[in-house]
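User: Let's play a game. I give you a shape written as tokens, and you guess the letters that built it. Ready? Here's round one.
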């Protein structure tokens, strides 16, 4: 029999995959509202050149991307999602 913990871990992985997919789709389509569904309002985003509130990142990056592209094509191939990490946060490795 499958344990409740195994079921919950599977559900958690699917939910994390959905968030990653929404992020990629939001960036690729330059979709501000979709990107805002990926982050908590007080989330921090560290993209190297930007480190601050995630919503501020969206407001900063979308105009830059609109100047250089009409869209993109992020692909999530072999994502490893560890929902049991010591930090209590999901990790993704490609």
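Assistant: Ready! My guess for every position:
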């Amino acid at each position: 029999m499958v344990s409740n913990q195994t079921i919950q871990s599977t559900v958690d992985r699917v939910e994390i995959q959905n968030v990653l997919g929404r992020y990629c789709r939001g960036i690729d389509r330059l979709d501000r509202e979709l990107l805002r569904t990926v982050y908590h309002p007080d989330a921090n985003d560290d993209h190297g050149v930007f480190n601050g509130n995630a919503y501020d990142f969206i407001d900063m990056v979308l105009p830059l991307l609109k100047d250089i592209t009409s869209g993109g094509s992020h692909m999530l191939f072999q994502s490893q999602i560890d929902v049991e990490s010591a930090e209590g946060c999901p990790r993704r490795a490609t």
